[in-house]
# Entry
Amino acid sequence: MNDFSGLRVLVVEDELLVALALEDILNDMGCEIVGPFSHLEEAEAQARSAELDAAILDVNVRGRLIYPVAEILGERGVPVLFCSGYADTPVLPAPFRSLPQVAKPYDEAALRRAMESAFGEACRTRDASPAS
# Structure
């Protein structure tokens, strides 16, 4: 089981109740939350500039698809977890189908499993880094 303490996670979610529940779960895991953001422009700005270890992205944000944000994060080497009603369906474009996904609604156990799949390497790399 991975230790997510201190993991800086970008959260993009436009449904308030889902965002609040996700915040609670991530806080309980010890994550540092960047967001949540409910607009694509805010998410893109954070994806470009924020210090991030990982990202949890809703696929459909206010009727717009999150893929530009996922592309920016991919270029930066930030692992992404899609959190969506589209999870595990061929609706996701080919470049993103191989990324870990968790279907909404989800519970803490399902989210933790998805995070271990998506962010396990980021946790191991971070844990192996010498302390500053």
Remarks:
- The longest helix spans residues 108-128.
- The two ends are 25 Å apart (CA to CA).
- The longest strand covers residues 32-37.
- The CA atoms of residues 47 and 73 lie 6 Å apart.
